[in-house]
Write a structure and sequence with these properties.
Blueprint: H1 2-19, E1 22-25, H2 30-43, E2 47-53, H3 59-72, E3 76-80, H4 96-114, E4 119-121, H5 135-141, H6 147-150, H7 155-165, H8 190-205, E5 211-216, E6 219-224, H9 229-234, H10 236-246, E7 250-253, H11 265-269
Parallel strand pairs: 1-2, 1-4, 2-3, 6-7
Antiparallel strand pairs: 5-6
Helix pairs in contact: 1-2, 4-5, 8-10
């Protein structure tokens, strides 16, 4: 396995070097941070980050992305977008991610062209094939590269390589945009995004690293790791009081616990 991961890493670097120049869609997460730093190591100033500022991304994510670029001297291009203005997006259909991804990645493509960067790439890995991800269709249609997946790198391998490189993101919890917190068919509004964002920030401030707050009408469904159930119970009064102030009517804890894409389970089961 040790040799295998090294071979994959070398393949990634060779692939990036062959591009000549590239814009990396950079959210500040584990995968895009690793891809960006590797591209910068290989291509220098011919690799740049393109970060989208939008209401579906918390300010802390944008701030961490900017800090990462400053730390490593990487050129960062900031684009502002409003997914709620994308036709059909606010209605939250099952292809919501496709609608959003296509629009936002087009912004990244446009920025790359303006900066005379030959290619655009994003940070999907081999594990991303295991969930319902219509956004990947948009990536493919736009001709955006996915070098980590092409190199055969998994999330665990990306974390390990990031650790070796000393990247601060190597153990950062997985994250997805706030729009993924809503039941399909429920309207997404700026107010609801603020409610969910505030609720998750509170849990982060309380020390819960890998978690989600899902919204069902006016009910909050909290997902934390099973080993943290007891700790959540201990602070339940503070959490409940705060959530009610944010605008939720009911506050619940999911007894299954944190898992990625739990809103997609109704698609898989046909419910």
């Amino acid at each position: 396995m040790q040799q295998d991961i090294n071979q994959k890493f070398e393949h990634l670097k060779q692939n990036l070097a062959s591009l000549g120049s590239v814009a990396i869609a950079f959210s500040g997460g584990v995968d895009s941070a690793f891809l960006l730093k590797t591209a910068h190591d290989v291509l220098g100033s011919q690799a740049a980050a393109v970060t989208i500022h939008a209401a579906v991304f918390p300010d802390r994510e944008s701030g961490e992305a900017a800090d990462f670029c400053r730390r490593y001297g990487i050129r960062q291009i900031i684009c502002t977008a409003d997914p709620l203005k994308i036709e059909g997006f606010a209605a939250n259909p099952k292809n919501r991610c496709y609608l959003c991804k296509r629009r936002l990645m087009q912004e990244v493509l446009d920025a790359a062209q303006e900066q005379m960067l030959a290619y655009t790439a994003e940070g999907s890995n081999t594990d991303d094939a295991g969930d319902y991800r219509p956004g990947q269709q948009a990536v493919a249609q736009l001709g955006i590269l996915s070098p980590l997946r092409e190199a055969g790198l998994s999330k665990a391998e990306i974390r390990e390589l990031s650790r070796r490189m000393g990247l601060p993101t190597w153990e950062k919890p997985s994250y997805a945009c706030l729009a993924s917190r809503f039941v399909y068919g429920e309207e997404i509004t700026p107010e609801k995004l603020t409610m969910v964002g505030s609720a998750e920030q509170l849990l982060l401030d309380l020390g819960f690293r890998q978690m989600r707050v899902r919204m069902h009408g006016q009910m909050a469904r909290i997902e934390v790791l099973p080993q943290e159930f007891d700790r959540l119970i201990k602070v339940r009064s503070q959490v409940a009081d705060s959530f009610l102030k944010y605008g939720f009517t009911y506050v619940t804890m999911d007894l299954i616990g944190y898992r990625t894409g739990s809103m997609n389970e109704v698609i898989e089961t046909g419910m």
